[in-house]
Design brief:
- Helix content is 42%, strand content 13%.
- It contains 6 helices and 6 strands.
- Strand 2, helix 2 and strand 3 form a beta-alpha-beta unit.
- The longest helix is centred in the last third of the chain and has 18 residues.
- It is globular, with a radius of gyration of 17 Å.
- It starts with a strand and ends in an 8-residue tail after the last helix.
């Protein structure tokens, strides 16, 4: 498993510019009957809060990836698969329905359905502890669950989208993955 450091650009483009670019990418894909100018990947998004849901929808629509979004709340998963957002997000309801209709997005409560993905985007909650530091236990559990299902010789890339301190979180995730590999008597590396 590989951990990827995901960082934001130093300056963010204006919202209108982002909307125009996304609309252009979708229009381009539609104009070519879904023949995407990008290589389509199978991606798993772990966590369907605000960040994970938007990530899953946009990866399916803007880049044509096949996305399976995992959340442990079966009621939330059911609602999302019906095309209903659990929380209001302006403009996202229609995009969710479009992504589901395209067949490139679905939601599940079962990690094993996402095992074929090479890329795992971790967008789970990281609530603040009483000490003020981020509680990374949900991230660590997600990393363990992915390592538990990884097959020998497969490369899995984990991308953290949750709000966390960078270096200590990476060490904790490596430790969680390594412990799971050791439990399974597998030799694996975390790059």
């Amino acid at each position: 498993l590989e951990l990827s450091k995901h960082s934001l650009p130093k300056s963010r483009p204006a919202k209108q510019e982002i909307d125009r670019e996304k609309s252009s990418a979708r229009s381009e894909a539609r104009a070519t009957n879904g023949n995407w100018p990008y290589r389509s990947e199978k991606i798993a998004v772990i966590g369907t809060g605000y960040v994970g849901t938007v990530e899953a929808i946009m990866d399916a629509l803007d880049f044509g990836h096949v996305v399976i979004a995992v959340d442990l709340d079966p009621e939330k998963v059911e609602k999302l698969n019906r095309g209903e957002l659990p929380n209001y997000m302006e403009g996202m309801q229609e995009l969710l329905q479009e992504a589901l209709k395209s067949g490139r997005l679905r939601f599940t409560a079962d990690y094993s359905e996402a095992v074929d993905a090479q890329f795992f985007i971790l967008a789970v909650q990281t609530p603040q502890k009483t000490t003020g530091e981020a509680d990374t236990s949900f991230l660590e559990q997600a990393a363990r669950d992915i390592a538990r299902l990884a097959k020998r010789g497969e490369e899995k890339i984990l991308i953290v989208k949750s709000t966390v301190p960078p270096n200590s979180t990476e060490r904790r995730l490596r430790k969680a993955i390594t412990a799971e590999f050791k439990r399974r008597k597998l030799r694996g590396k975390t790059a």
